[in-house]
Amino acid sequence: MSTHLRNPDRHLRHLNRPLAAGLGLLGLLLGLVSTAPSASAAPLAADGPGVGTPWVVTLGDSYISGEAGRWAGASNDDYRRADALGPNAYHDNADGTGETIARCHRASTAEAHIGGGVNGLNLACSGARTATAAGTNFKPGIDFFNSSAGKGQALMLQEAAASRNVRMVVVSIGGNDFEFASAVQTCVVNFLTSPSWWKNYCHDDSSVAENFTAANVAAIRSRVAGALGNVATAMSNAGYSTSQWTLVVQTYPSPMPSGSGFRYSESGYTRQSVGGCGVWNQDADWANATALPTINGALLGAASDVGLSNVRTLDMTHAFDGKRLCEKGVGLYEELGLPSWQSPGAADRTEWVNQVRTVTTIGDSPYFVQESLHPSYWGQLAMRNCLRQVWNGGAPRSGSCTVGNLGTARLTPSGEPSMVLGPLAKG
Question: Helix (H) and strand (E) counts for the chain?
């Protein structure tokens, strides 16, 4: 998902602060070297289906691409306190000089790169929907689109899998089909343009509610099922049997607490001007109780509808609970008295979700509006820790992910928050 907000009035927060490794390595064709020609010296098999180093490939939108992965927590005083990856955070082309597709924001912290002898390929793109959008800003969907503008993610997967041993494909898609960015914009604008004694909620606005009607939910569920079917077709076209790979359907995490969990009051504009989380309590309650379960339910329903035997589920619904944007128990660096993201305890005491920014990036500001309300540096690494547990040494399993040691979250030796993959939640 990707968020683009505009400035509705003078109360919108105005930020005026100074604004990975290449992933697409082709499998090497290995030949038997001999000192003399020999008719019996057949070439060794190239990496491909079932052969070679295992790969994990991620597909979908901003919640799996690495959007906001540059920022480890937040500071309104000095952005450098939270700048973990620097200005090249989203450079993913072969030589690390730019983006393969503009504004896909594939950060080096993205969960695809689980390591441990497993290679990662991140084909997801911030702003992507189930179907490719080939307009001014090219956004590859999970389809076989192919033109001078670019290729769809299913086609990219098919081409990559032919020369790699792709063992697991992870998909997170559908949020933008539910118009996530538009809903966030409406909620923030309604918060900033109505007083606390006459609140204008967003969840009952027609522009938001129409995305959650039974008919629209069914339509999006069907589109997601079609996208998952495209993944299966791509793998089959690349030469894979169902037993050679696993499809993991990943749900979305809750980025904000429910109303009672905010550390900033509804009164005044502090909730947005300081916290970057300007929504009314009732809208936050609706988001967690209705919107998120509806979106995730459509994904899980689609996973069932596609009818594949090799499907697993990674439930991220509660992965950030206790570390969400503006949640009690975490804070900004200046609120906590921490110098920077490298300070001991920063991962435990700062937020894992990026602030909502409501003005277009201007001047030398380092922030992108589309980074709003996405898993930031710690959140991305937490999701990677979850996915490594799903990988399970090459025998993928389903599960629900939550923070380990909540309140005293610890980092693993590789610098990731230690997460717990438990049984899938019921209901």
Answer: 11, 9
Measure the CA–CA gap between 52 and 189, rounded to whole angstroms: 52
Task: Kindly indicate the confidence band of residue 46, based on its pLDDT and cuts at 50, 70 and 90.
Answer: confident
pLDDT in tens, 47-77: 999 999 999 999 999 999 999 999 999 999 9
Beta bridge partners of 55: 119, 166
The predicted model gives 192-211 an average pLDDT of 96
In a domain, 89, yes or no: yes
Domain assignment of residue 417, yes or no: yes
Domain membership of residue 283 (yes or no) is: yes
Q: What sign does the CA torsion over 376, 313, 120, 114 have?
A: positive
Domain count across the chain: 1
CATH number of the domain within which 354 lies: 3.40.50.1110
Does an H or E element contain 157, and which?
helix 153-161
* 74-96 mean pLDDT: 95
Residue 210, both tokens = 């129409």
Q: Name the pairing type of β-strands 311-315 and 246-250.
A: parallel
At 81 the three-state DSSP class reads helix
Q: In b/e form, how buried is each residue of 37-64, taking b as 16+ CB within 10 angstroms?
A: eeeeeeeeebbbbbebebbbbbbbbbbb
pLDDT in tens, 238-260: 999 999 999 999 999 999 999 99
Q: For the segment 324-377, what is each residue's pLDDT rounded down to a tens digit?
A: 999 999 999 999 999 999 999 999 999 999 999 876 444 467 999 999 999 999
* Closest to 76 in 3D by CA, of 13, 140, 150: 13
Report the mean per-residue pLDDT for the chain.
89
Structural domain for 289, as ranges: 54-422
* Distance (Å, whole) CA 414 – CA 179: 36
Q: Are strands 150-151 and 165-172 parallel, antiparallel or unpaired?
A: unpaired
pTM: 0.89
Give dist(CA 133, CA 145) in Å, integer: 9
Domain presence at residue 393? yes
